[in-house]
Specification:
7-stranded mixed sheet
């Protein structure tokens, strides 16, 4: 996995300005309504999307950026943040009720994305939500980011597609696609 330390440190420093309370509420309310008692954000950055979860839910975040993880731990000391890659998640099989990504899969190369999808599937007990910039043909957005078609990515797994829609602009103004799947036994 290629990793640009300077880019991601700067991204972490600016992350607070990206906080979207409506998106955080949406993710929290969705996980709680699905009766999930454990939540993992892959590519959690500084943990801004997790901050509204109550203490009654086990919260985990993984990221590769030390600066972002330090910031996440300071802001959310009751949650567990770990330095790990999406290609090797530090959790047992079927151990997390709800796993989500938010504009993270867009920065992965195809090989890491494929491994990451496999890892999310392995670790998931119930649900996976991907909130990513959509591109039917997965074209490049810029030098770092690439549009993703997560519905297509999940087609090789034993899952039920619950939702695959563009998020409403009041929740996520950057026009990202919301794909929610349920892992089947």
């Amino acid at each position: 996995m290629s990793y640009n330390q300077e880019f991601w440190d700067n991204y972490a420093k600016e992350n607070e300005s990206r906080y979207n309370e409506e998106f955080s509420k949406f993710i929290r309310d969705l996980a709680i309504s699905l009766r999930c008692s454990s939540v993992l954000e892959v590519g959690c950055g500084t943990g801004i999307d997790l901050r509204l979860f109550p203490d009654t839910v086990e919260i985990y975040g993984v990221d590769l950026n030390d600066l972002a993880l330090d910031m996440a731990k300071k802001k959310n000391p009751k949650f567990t943040f770990k330095k790990h890659s999406i290609t090797d998640l530090p959790f047992e099989d079927s151990s997390i009720d709800f796993i989500f990504t938010h504009k993270f899969l867009n920065c992965l190369n195809d090989e890491d994305l494929n491994k990451g999808v496999s890892e999310m599937y392995r670790v998931s007990r119930k649900y996976i939500a991907n909130c990513e910039t959509f591109s039917k043909n997965e074209s490049k957005i810029d030098d770092i980011f690439k549009g993703r078609n997560m519905l297509e990515r999940w087609s090789n797994y034993k899952v039920k597609i619950i939702s695959d829609v563009d998020m409403h602009e009041d929740i996520e103004p950057e026009k990202i696609r919301f794909t929610l799947i349920k892992k089947l036994e």
